[in-house]
Amino acid sequence: MKYNRILVRYGEISTKGRNRKMFTAKLRENILHTLKDFPTISVAASRDRLHIQLGDENAEEIIPRLEKIFGIQSFSPVVKVPQNMEDIMKAGLSLVQKSFSPGKTFKVAARRADKKFELDTNELNYEVGSYILRNMDGLKVDVKNPDIQLNVEVRKEAVYLSSEIYQGSTGMPVGASGKAMLMLSGGIDSPVAGYLTMKRGVEIEAVHFHSPPFTSERAKQKVIDLSKKLSAFSGKVKLHIVPFTKVQQTIHDQVPENYTMTSTRRMMLRIADQIREKNEGLALITGESLGQVASQTLESMQAINDVTNTPVLRPLIAMDKLEIIDIAQKIDTHDISILPYEDCCTIFTPPAPKTRPKKEKVEYYESFVDFEALLTEAVDGTETLTIDGSTGSNAEKTFDGLL
Ligand code: ATP
Ligand code: MG
Q1: What is the residue with the minimal CA distance to atom 31 of ligand 1?
Q2: Helix (H) or strand (E) holding 384
Q3: Which residues make up the environment of ion ligand 2, defined by Cβ < 5 Å?
Q4: Mutate to test the pocket of ligand 1, among 185, 208, 354 (most ligand atoms within 8 A of CB)
Q5: DSSP secondary structure string, 91-128?
Q6: Where is 247: in which H helix or E strand?
Q7: Mean pLDDT to the nearest integer, 179-199
Q8: How far is the CA of 91 from the CAs of 61, 79, 83, 104, 162, in angstroms?
Q9: What distance in Å separates the CA atoms of residue 341 and residue 328, rounded to the nearest whole number?
Q10: pLDDT class of 399 with cuts at 50, 70, 90
Q11: Distance, CA 343 to ligand 2 centroid (Å)?
Q12: pLDDT band at residue 13, thresholds of 50, 70 and 90?
């Protein structure tokens, strides 16, 4: 038995009123992008459902990819058969067999959109149900709370059957809520911050600060690998790699040691903000969590954040480290993040950074250097990579035989 299509149920997007059309179009686009190496599929979005027609492709290969796409509540692979009882019963039996293990209960839930069909809903439930019972041992009916529900939908053009429901990633389609720049280190936190923001429909571009020769190619590769993991949720992620050595060394030479960390963060934020502006992003995102390290006190955030009016999103701000690690494991970034290659901050971190820095002081220390010119140089020297979460050729198509 081969599935012909996948029925996708929208999550939160179905509550979005007038924007709904834009949300469903975005979801359709994201699905097509993620599945672009399956050339024979096509995707059509209707008001409250989306349908993926599988063509020659295998549902089993498509399902794991769909599970990662935001904006999907749940989905079900569907078998399409002609309008005759023999085909319906055989397909129904094979679907129930697929999900069956001893002791499981089932029910048939028929719907008849084509009222001309020879049997009505009750007759269909009975005929299909008793055929399946006759052909299987150990299966029982439970109409109230079945383990397996076989849906049979009779339409004019064909009959559609499904029995499995997969949970989607929920949230909103990436790109439906604009774009923001994720400040991506090689640590555990920032990839999680990126993931959570994408889940709210925000497209992300990553910005990473790199300080060769103090940081290695392997540290850079680590960030590329993290971006690749994130791109699995969004199709693709742009990664901007900023040459940060000169700025960092200047801070090191000019700013008193206990203020270098504050100043470094301020410069990072200024550069990220310039890159954001160039790329038409609307916000910045960091992996900060209150109280975790010296730079993550409220006083410190205030002194750092002072360099910009751009919204800085901090999705982890109130989370515990263990909760963050949990998500990092779920999205498969954790094991990359814990690799030991140093990033630019670890190397220059002073033994005792100020936990309560004063904005006036850091401004004063910075005032002896023309940082503006150094920042421009860093922005101009930035290298941009596009990391694609899917591979292969694009095959954008539509079809109109809606379920
Ligand atoms: P992470 O686990 O994300 O590295 P952290 O707990 O190590 O976070 P910090 O080192 O204080 O915390 O960094 C705070 C935030 O600053 C990071 O979450 C990230 O958003 C940003 N950041 C730090 N280092 C870099 C870097 N080299 N490139 C880009 N962003 C960075
Ligand atoms: Mg870090």
Answers
A1: 185
A2: strand 383-388
A3: 185, 187
A4: 185
A5: HHHHHHHHH--TT-EEEEEEEES-TTSSS-HHHHHHHH
A6: helix 245-254
A7: 97
A8: 21, 7, 12, 19, 9
A9: 18
A10: very low
A11: 7
A12: low
Residue closest via CA to ligand 1's atom 21 equals: 183
- The pLDDT of residue 351: 75
In the block, residue with structure tokens 């190496």: 37
Pseudo-torsion of CA 20, 21, 22, 25, nearest 10°?
Answer: 120
Q: In whole angstroms, what is the distance from residue 266 CA to residue 85 CA?
A: 70
pTM of the model: 0.87
CA distance 191 to 327: 10
| Residue 391 one-letter amino acid | T
Per-position DSSP letters for 176-244, written without gaps between them:
TT-EEEEE--SSSHHHHHHHHHHHBT-EEEEEEEE-TTTS-HHHHHHHHHHHHHHHHHHSEEEEEEEE-
Q: Mean pLDDT lowest for which of 69-83, 100-114, 122-136, 383-397?
A: 383-397
Task: Retrieve residue 165's tokens.
Answer: 């429901």
Which amino acid, 40?
Answer: T
List all residues whose CB is within 6 A of at least one atom of ligand 1: 183-185, 187-190, 207-209, 286-288, 292-293, 295-296, 343-345
CA 188 to centroid of ligand 2, rounded, Å: 7
Give the length of the chain: 403
Q: Whose CA is nearest to atom 7 of ligand 1?
A: 187
Ligand in nearest proximity to the CA of 214: 1
| C-alpha span between 55 and 96 (Å, rounded) | 23
Question: Ligand 1 centre and the CA of 4: distance in Å?
Answer: 45
* Separation CA 374–CA 140 (nearest Å): 74
pLDDT(227) > 70: yes
Atom 12 of ligand 1, residue of closest alpha carbon: 288
DSSP code per residue over 299-324 = HHHHHHHTT--S-EE-TTTT--HHHH
- The two beta strands, 105-112 and 148-154, are parallel
- Whether the per-residue pLDDT at 291 is higher than 50: the answer is yes
Q: Is 18 exposed, middle or buried (0-12, 13-18, 19+ CB in 10 A)?
A: exposed
User: Residues 283, 284, 287, 291: is their CA dihedral positive or negative?
Assistant: negative
